[in-house]
Design brief:
Two copies of one chain form a homodimer. The first copy, chain A, has helices spanning 2-6, 17-23, 29-38, 116-125, 127-153, 156-174, 191-198, 202-214, 231-238, and strands at 39-44, 49-51, 59-65, 68-73, 79-85, 90-91, 102-105, 109-115, 183-186, 219-221, 225-228. By secondary structure, chain A is α+β, with helices and mostly antiparallel strands. In chain A, helix 6 (156-174) crosses helix 8 (202-214) and helix 7 (191-198) packs across helix 8 (202-214). Chain A binds a DNA duplex through helix 8.
DNA sequence: GCTTTCGTTTGATCTGCATCAAAGTCAGTG
DNA sequence: CACTGACTTTGATGCAGATCAAACGAAAGC
């Protein structure tokens, strides 16, 4: 996705991801100028909550740098991550007053925000923004559905391989390289966060990561630094037939 | 959802769900007229495929009567349902050439369709349609994320109770009643289809349905006809904290 | 009426992952 | 440098749900 969008980054655009993602592809100077006037930035430290489920949410925005997660929690504490927000991903829902999920910064995070009211007014006045938002939402929906297959039917080993493949792909995309041959990247998640994403326990995650290492599907340096010698092998382990694959 | 949308059904509107769902809320005569000119109907028998994943999909549409499912399948045959389409739900993605999922009619099905090209042109010309589509897509995304929690973290019994609650709610909504007290409805799915939706085997589904019956959470007449004496009890069994709940 | 077929139920057994428990690694800090 | 706390790994054991297997009930065809 990021590769795709990079084609649309204009000289006129600043670092604000809304402009890249929601507008740039078909932007004109007026729209950009208007967005520029109402935007502002927010920073969060690693581990800090951005917003809790149920809280009033009077802004929308997108990630500039860092990583945030969307999670749902049951009363007894069981947690399921339902989204992973990487740079350029959008947060918040136009037309909804309160947050539906817990949003947490897992690394230091900078977001580019717009107060909801003026943003919604702009959306009405500027169809391009709404259209771009629809595209992004449809992508997220596809990602969520692919994740449903993972959660419902894949084994622990396949889940781990899938997550690694997705992170590898996103990482390669950010570096504007295609994910073939040897890939090197850092895991942006702890074992526990991986477990919350995959519907597993952290112990199982640890065991399966070790197993993939033992079987030379990956190699590890420290806990986080991963090398994937053969990306196709990893995809095979992931049980993926398709090679689309999103991470939202 | 259907209750909500019923408020917007105008006298001028025909039975075409696109008009209800995508346009009616804020429709004007011109838009309706234009949509009316390009729409057509398709019928499918129970069990018939609507489209296979990967096939060219040159239309979009929505369900008028009957029920369809979206499923993903892995090479080795493991299947996961990722959507359940009830009357008024939308199928197809503007801007995508081929289907991403298998769509199957589980009952006799009538769909109201539009060829993709003219529909997309109308979307560009008529921002209301795009905005309504964005709302619907965001609802589906919420439903998918709630389903991720179910698939990743709920027990088999909770999964069954959740599915029954969702079907009961949707059924009550179609009858314009609020889902309290005793509810009676027919399951639109076989045990196997329920299993595919819940990430279980059909045997486990059968056992857990029997268990809920034994514990008087539900009663059954035949295999399909369900009575829920106490909806709140069912929600409790489902482990649901929220009482939103979508079924897409 | 009998047989076939499809969906379902129920029983016996197995297994992948959860759970419980302990110990190892590493960065930060007094 | 030892101490602390966060994160991770590894081991032992238990159990929810999968798998394998058989039988049941109802509808459809002959």
């Amino acid at each position: 996705m990021a590769v795709h969008d990079a084609q649309f980054v204009h000289q006129e655009c600043s670092d604000c991801p809304i402009r890249h993602r929601a507008v740039c592809a078909r932007c004109d100077a007026d729209e950009l100028g208007k967005l520029e006037q109402i935007k502002f930035y927010r920073s969060y430290q690693a581990g800090q909550p951005v917003i809790w489920s149920g809280d009033r949410m009077d802004f929308v925005g997108s990630v500039v740098t860092g990583i945030a997660t969307l999670t749902q929690t049951m009363e007894d504490g069981r947690r399921q991550m339902v989204g992973l927000l990487l740079p350029s991903d959008f947060v918040g829902r136009p037309g909804r007053a309160s947050a539906a999920y817990d949003v947490t910064a897992t690394t230091d995070l900078v977001m580019c925000c717009f107060r909801k009211k003026p943003f919604e007014e702009m959306m009405l006045a500027t169809p391009h923004i709404g259209q771009r938002l629809l595209e992004m939402t449809l992508d997220e929906l596809d990602a969520a559905r692919e994740w449903m297959l993972l959660l419902g039917r894949k084994t622990a080993r396949e889940k781990i391989a899938s997550l690694l493949a997705i992170i590898a792909r996103r990482d390669a995309a950010l570096k504007l390289r295609s994910p073939k041959g040897a890939l090197v990247f850092d895991l942006p998640l702890t074992r526990e966060e991986m477990a919350d994403y995959l519907g597993l326990t952290l112990e199982t995650v640890s065991r399966q990561v070790s197993a993939l290492k033992r079987d030379d599907v990956i190699s590890l340096e420290g806990n986080r630094h991963v090398t994937v010698p053969d990306f196709d092998r990893l995809l095979e382990e992931a049980g993926d037939d398709n090679d689309g694959g999103y991470l939202v």
